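Structural prep section.
Before we set up the soaks we want a predicted structure of the protein with magnesium ion in place, mainly to decide which crystallisation condition to try first. Input record follows.
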Amino acid sequence: MSFNIEELSYPLKKAIDAMGFESLTPIQEKAIPVGLAGRDLIGQAQTGTGKTTAFAIPFLERIDDDDKVQVLVLTPTRELCIQVEKEIYKLSRYLPLHSLAIYGGQDIKRQISSLKNRPQIIVATPGRLKDHLRRRTIRLNDIKVVILDEADEMLNMGFVEDIEDILKECPEERQTMMFSATMRPEIKRIAETYMKDPEMVKVSQETLTVPAIDQEAFIVYEDKKLLLLTRLLDMMQPDLSMVFGRTKRRVDELTRALQQLGFRAEGLHGDLSQYQRDQVMRKFREKRIDILVATDVAARGLDVQGVTHVFNFDLPQDADSYVHRIGRTGRAGNDGLAMSFVTPREKDHLAYIERTIKHKIARSPLPTEQRTQQVRQENLRIQVVDALENGEFDQLSWVAEDLIATYGAQDALMAALSLITTGDQRDFEAKRINLTAEKPVYSKNSVPHKGGRGHKGSRNKNFHNRKNRSYNKGKHGDHGKGKSDKWKKSPRRKNAQ
Ligand SMILES: Nc1ncnc2c1ncn2[C@@H]1O[C@H](COP(=O)(O)OP(=O)(O)OP(=O)(O)O)[C@@H](O)[C@H]1O
Ligand SMILES: [Mg+2]
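Run finished without errors. Recording the tokens verbatim:
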């Protein structure tokens, strides 16, 4: 029998109930008993499968309300730090425990004054935590549990020294747990050097990516990417989407371009002030913007309800990053669609990503102007039907009567429709915007094409088996053909597991 909710203490059961979780996810079933036993562990499970709760429940069951810092959770980014602390806060709602997020960019004095609440649990980014250690405003002498979320990233070059420094300040006698959706063998070996006889808790799946995420690739020239994105956004009208760009400059330029084209988009990257970063994340979570354009700073861990589409405007450098980026959708049992833009010179890099994730990414044909226009018009029809069914427009009746009497119903309606379509104009503008070109991505793992550059390998032919797919098979626009509706409206959301 696997571990289940009934075995938890009452305050946690109640909190989990309030969060709407009906049962535990597989990684939670497997990792919680090991964590409760006080063992060190490395937990690996796909994106969006509830690793946060998997690592939080054991320490919430085990620590006491002694007002010392007993648990330290480390995360690679500020946004993730804030999010993880929120999840812990929700889980500990009925427990006499305090948690606090400590991250860079926030006023350190404010953090110092929040520390007066005597939190038992600190969630931190490494840099800012080290500041506090230097100032002796945080001490780690009483730490019982250390958790590295996104452990493989934390043990990568950029962070590993900070992590070492931090772990040195923690007592030897402690429980250490590491979690991630990706754990390359060499990183796993490094991880083990910081742990005592860790148990490997893995929810094995055939692929690194989540099956609920549909993955597609478009082979597209660099200077046609913006037009492609514009058309896809217009056709599919995602609820919320994330667009990943390679560099900060790329993110800035792309955000500006999308705004100019009339999309509600904002950018997120490490050069923004913390205030700006917080604002952007808040707007995105509250659906006041539809599109978050970001660098890899947003690739890991972020959990935003309603993200139905992820676009890799630029391919990521490594396959792990691909896994985490696309994992921002298809979370907790929901569907998602991930689309990657690949320049012809990056085909080998895509092949390397496919090999690593053990999943073949379907090649999709580029939407033509004609097809795009047709879908836009069908979407327009849906908009009008929605308005007919739900709208209140009685106050416009005299205008309609007047226009119909003067110009006839058909002309009057067509003129009115033309006012609300932006599509053709958008295409026109998208073609005129020049983004600074990014270099093609290449990694030492991407093998060159057989026959050199420009060779059209027979391998690629198999990928075009979707050529005749329709971009519009939704409930209103299409007249009965096909089942998939992903090309237009956002994928349907199932209930969370
Ligand atoms: N038992 C559960 N039932 C339903 N939903 C859950 C359950 N546990 C967690 N969730 C929800 O699932 C979502 C994803 O959880 P979480 O962010 O912990 O995933 P993750 O495995 O850490 O993903 P990533 O690898 O991207 O960091 C969250 O919204 C969380 O609240
Ligand atoms: Mg996570």
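Observations: The pocket of adenosine-5'-triphosphate (ligand 1) is lined by residues 21, 24-25, 28, 47-53, 181, 301, 303, 327, 331-332, 496-497 (CB under 6 Å).
Flagged for discussion at group meeting.
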